[in-house]
Design a protein that fits this description.
Two copies of one chain form a homodimer.
Chain A (H helix, E strand, L loop, with lengths): L10 E7 L2 E16 L7 H9 L4 E11 L5 H19 L6 E8 L6 H11 L7 H10 L8 E7 L2 E8 L12 E9 L2 H14 L4 E2 L9 E12 L2 H21 L7 E9 L2 H13 L1 H8 L6 H7 L12 E4 L6 E5 L2 E2 L3 H7 L4 E7 L5 E8 L3 H7 L5
Parallel strand pairs in A: 3-4, 7-9, 8-15, 10-14
Antiparallel strand pairs in A: 1-2, 2-3, 2-9, 5-6, 6-7, 10-15, 11-12, 11-14, 12-13
Helix pairs in contact in A: 1-2, 2-3, 5-6, 7-9
Amino acid sequence: MKSICGVEGVRAAGLKEGKYGLALVAASGTAAAVFTGNLVKAAPIILMEERVARGELDGIIVNSGSANAYTGERGMRDAAAMAEIGAASLGTEPERVGVASTGVIGRYLDLDLIRRQAGEVAPRLRHEYAAEVEVARAIMTTDLTEKHALVQGPGFSVGGVCKGSGMIAPNMGTMIALLYTDAEVPAGELREALRAATRRTFNQVVVDGDTSTNDVAFLTATGEAGRVPATSLAAALEECTRSLAIQIARDGEGATKLIEVVVRGARTEDGAAAVARTVVGSPLLKTAVYGADPNWGRVLAAAGRAGVAFDPGRVSLFIGAGARRTPLVEGGTIVVDLARAKEAMRGREVRFELDLGEGKEEATAWGCDLTEKYVEINGRYTT
Amino acid sequence: MKSICGVEGVRAAGLKEGKYGLALVAASGTAAAVFTGNLVKAAPIILMEERVARGELDGIIVNSGSANAYTGERGMRDAAAMAEIGAASLGTEPERVGVASTGVIGRYLDLDLIRRQAGEVAPRLRHEYAAEVEVARAIMTTDLTEKHALVQGPGFSVGGVCKGSGMIAPNMGTMIALLYTDAEVPAGELREALRAATRRTFNQVVVDGDTSTNDVAFLTATGEAGRVPATSLAAALEECTRSLAIQIARDGEGATKLIEVVVRGARTEDGAAAVARTVVGSPLLKTAVYGADPNWGRVLAAAGRAGVAFDPGRVSLFIGAGARRTPLVEGGTIVVDLARAKEAMRGREVRFELDLGEGKEEATAWGCDLTEKYVEINGRYTT
């Protein structure tokens, strides 16, 4: 198993027909979710903010192709109808079914299609590798790769699938992530663990700075592995969501390279996180990475507009990892070897380390390069 | 005349040799400037923040090719030396010379080159059309077009040149703008007028969301036309800076289209301005405009992450101007005619009007589409 079917108590199935996919996951337990911070929220987000607060789910239904966002009253009725379709498929109440949608904004759901697809998918719910792959594929839109993660904790597992490749920016619970653990976790603890993991991982991914209207991450604890220490759960969950976050960054629309920005020496973790996000999201840095152009001044220019106070004269900046790690600036002095810096920008992963020299806190953010392909994909998405 | 030589008391000259340009402007009077809000400020910015506070200048020297940013103590000495070169060329004190630099970050100035270029330029200072063109060209980097503006007030003129096409985002005094008026204006009033005009025009241009380390706008009042009402000056100055701001947006790196976003019905002007900037800067909207793809949901998704409260159910959205103006959403209801919307996206200018339905304030922001060419330009800028 690679993700959700590695967790006891989870059954899955899905299908994809052109742009239109449907995923169904059956898993009963305590549940928590985090949602987009966008003011314009999709109908299923508004519905779930109310329903997930009860802390229990029996399953989740997700469609791709239409976001059911900015669809007003009809959108709310459609989201509720989708919960009913899910409930009928899973043999439970609509209030115990998670609903998520992804796709074009401002289009109504095709409920007939969703009803037919659910009818085909429901009899195939099962606990096996092919089933988790179906789910990961069913929820993809412009994604090129399926995104799975599975982490083994001591005596329990945490697994998740997610989708996301454009309209990705902080302040969210990523595009859509379905996370499961077989640990037994009270709903309150589950919520806290999900918030903490989201803040450090999904919220640190920037593809294009656009925050979606439909971001949601669901976490369900089936309980089949019994109680586990809160710290073990938190650690395993964060490892799982970090893996998924990095997969989103790597599969950013049009991306050829993963960018990792580590900010150290900050006075606060939030400050480090803000600087890391601003740098990794800078279009000028993203294009420089694409061109393997060691125009490192763009890292400092981006850091300087992050809204975090630091002394530019005390900063150190490194590029690359392992044997290729090379300094660009040390304690405010330029020490760059441009040939070595250029060398560190080749390859599929480019890493910057920025030490602000102010304190002991650190944070990491992930993103991707900006290429002609991003423009091509997004200039032609609806039509 | 098209810009600064339309203002009495201004003499100009400049030259450009490959990437390296030098502009010199002689104009004595009260002076004000606004600077980048980036924490990482270029050496000439740091120098000018101190010197311009005195409120008087005799001239300005600007080089292109090196930004003299992140160059530490040596950068500060180099900026001061550049003021001395300017002072010798203009026959005044270094403290009365404005200095600005634009180009690659993290490279030292070539003072020998600047000294030689100043020696060639100084004897050619003159009050004529060819001279203002030389200045506009000398300060260009990735700009494709010269940027001039000249506004006639009642009995006085306001003229300016500027440069800027990448690393353009709010919180600045644009890349570099040299503004002149022959009105007689006390330094304090000049500063206020410049701040107000900057806030409404230059700060409302977004090309890529990256705020430069070197942004600066200088405004000098030569006084030759005598005193004028403060409101006349403010109006003429804002018209002048708006024209330059739109020219920057239109010449955004790789741009094929100008995007104008008007936000009405906001509770505050700042709120309207923030929403307009967020929408015009959205990479997803920018690519949609490039592809003439009426994916208008991206306007609402961007508005929703601007940090400004509004009720999505009361919003109206229009695309196009004049006879082509067509509604997409009215009072929260989707009314879009996709064929007409697509038609309104053809042409070199695309205009969105978003009415939040909350109040009476409004603001406008300008930007450009995001194209493959932006990626190409910025993947290969230093090398």
